[in-house]
Write a structure and sequence with these properties.
There is one protein chain. By secondary structure, this protein is α/β, with parallel strands linked by helices. The chain has helices spanning 29-38, 58-68, 87-99, 118-129, 143-146, 152-162, 176-184, 200-205, 220-231, 235-254, 257-268, 285-297, 300-303; strands at 9-13, 43-46, 77-81, 104-108, 137-141, 166-171, 191-194, 210-212. The chain has a single domain, classed as Alpha-Beta Barrel (TIM Barrel), CATH 3.20.20. Helix content is 44%, strand content 12%. The chain has an eight-stranded parallel β-sheet, with helices on one face. Helix 7 links the parallel strand 6 (166-171) and strand 7 (191-194). Helix 2 runs parallel beside helix 3 (87-99) and helix 10 packs across helix 11 (257-268).
Length: 309
């Protein structure tokens, strides 16, 4: 694998557009891609948690990958999540992503019969990564969803010996000591990207350069200003921006989390990605109105990214 640049700026974990009957649709993706590019995003993370990837069939995930592939470019990274409970299914998706021009692949630990040690997790990920040897492999650390809660420092130390294309971690957890240990390992060899949107400033303070987060889909400007303030040493302004993020995140949590509330908020931004799949429960009309009211009170509609026509 050729050495590739690390992730910088904001990557959007994109939602999977669906029809009212639950079928996937790709019709809106060209407009979605242009919307993200025009609002300062640096790439997409496809079929992850926000994309309901684990609720899609292998065929559907391939269709979504193929639909996003034409929008990859030097400045717009195309990362495909290929995780599955079956490493063979993940291998199939990894090879497909490589064939369709992905910049990198990512994989969370298997949510069924989870590995219990770093070595077991490395063995699983090594099988997946081997199917796309020319692409950087990022482990997707999201223990609150996968149930796989293994030391990421131990994972990297084991993984660097067994996974030639191991590039880093999509670190969606609040253990900042462990995150900092991973950033520092081998003089910063690995690319550690930040997950939780509501703590981006914490990540920046310990050396994070890139972030992958759901709300970057619809309020990227808030985070771009936060990053710029941090770079300029204006920590107070950065704190103000982060607090705005926290207020919006509180509402996202209130209305069933980043996938259900996120798709509804994406529609408010002018990109209608449709409903979510079971077991996720979509918002009722009254809940949607209540969420709009709550979001209005915290200034969400002044922050929302615009759709360029």
């Amino acid at each position: 694998m050729k050495k590739k640049s690390k992730v910088e700026g904001l990557i959007a974990p994109v939602f999977t557009p669906m029809k009212d009957n639950g079928d996937i649709t790709t019709e809106i993706i060209p407009r979605y891609a242009e919307y993200l590019k025009s609002n300062g995003l640096n790439g997409v993370f496809v079929s992850g948690s926000s994309g309901e990837g684990m609720l899609l069939t292998t065929k559907e995930r391939k269709i979504i990958t193929e639909a996003w592939a034409p929008y990859a470019s030097e400045g717009f990274k195309f990362i495909v999540h290929v995780g599955s409970t079956s490493y063979r299914q993940a291998q199939e998706l990894a090879a497909h992503a490589m064939d369709n021009g992905a910049w990198a692949i990512s994989c969370m630990g298997p949510a069924f019969l989870q590995p219990k040690t770093a070595r077991e997790l490395v063995e699983f990920c090594g099988q997946v990564a081997s199917a796309a040897p020319n692409l950087p492999f990022y482990y997707y650390h999201i223990p609150m969803r996968s149930g796989v809660n293994i030391s990421m420092l131990e994972f990297l130390m084991e993984g660097k010996k067994a996974i030639p294309n191991l590039a880093g971690i999509k670190f969606t957890d609040s253990n900042f000591m462990e995150m900092q240990q991973c950033i520092a390992l081998d003089n910063g060899k690995f690319d550690i990207t930040h997950g939780p949107d509501e703590t981006l400033l914490c990540g920046l303070s310990i050396g994070i350069k890139g972030a992958i987060g759901t709300s970057y889909n619809f309020i990227p400007g808030l985070y771009l200003e936060l990053i710029e303030a941090f770079k300029n040493g204006d920590i107070e302004k950065a704190r103000v921006q982060q607090q705005k993020s926290v207020k919006i995140t509180e509402i996202i949590i209130k209305y069933r989390g980043g996938i259900v509330a996120g798709k509804a908020m994406m529609k408010m931004a002018g990109i209608d990605c449709g409903p979510c799949r079971p077991p996720l429960k979509n918002l009722s009309s009254s809940e949607h109105r209540e969420m709009e009211k709550d979001l209005s009170e915290v200034g969400f509609f002044n922050l929302i990214a615009s759709v360029k026509n």
